[in-house]
Design brief:
Layout lengths: L10 E4 L11 E3 L1 E2 L5 E5 L2 E4 L4 E2 L2 E2 L2 E3 L19 E3 L2 E2 L2 E3 L2 E3 L8 E2 L5 E4 L5 E3 L5
Antiparallel strand pairs: 1-2, 1-8, 3-4, 4-5, 6-7, 9-14, 10-13, 11-12, 14-15
């Protein structure tokens, strides 16, 4: 894969050539200081620019399959740590409420719903996360 195609939020699968990352580990690409891309590792951060040979990223392959909801944090690139304010139906119970018990299982949210990233604290409207 070309290094220029890698962006925050992408999920990479590590090969077995690292001492700080387990083989097969699925890692989310993040953006660090000065726009440097990295993945988390046992030593903290593994910067990807050190994994480039020519223009090719070595040691990682992109994870196959669709990405979640086509939104990701504009700060850190994560798409698996987002909370979206949504309208849901709940069942009132003696101990409070339970969304899973409600017969209406819809979760209504749109581009104007508030969104926050648990990973880095980023916050804005869903449209800002596209």
């Amino acid at each position: 894969m070309n290094f220029s195609d890698v962006k925050p939020g992408d999920i990479l699968v590590a090969d077995g050539g690292f001492t700080c990352i387990d083989e097969g580990a699925e890692l989310t690409v993040c953006r660090g200081h000065e726009d440097a891309l990295y993945v988390a590792c046992d030593d903290g951060r593994h910067y990807l620019d050190g994994q480039v040979s020519g223009k090719i990223l070595i040691g990682f392959e992109p994870k196959a399959g669709p990405q979640w909801h086509e939104i990701k944090c504009p700060n850190c690139g994560r798409d698996d740590q987002l909370d979206v304010d949504a309208v849901v139906s709940i069942r009132l119970t003696p101990s409070g409420s339970d969304a899973d018990m409600s017969e209406d299982e819809s979760h209504i949210w749109d581009d104007n719903s508030m969104c926050s990233c648990i990973a880095c604290g980023g916050r804005g409207k869903v449209r800002d996360f596209k």
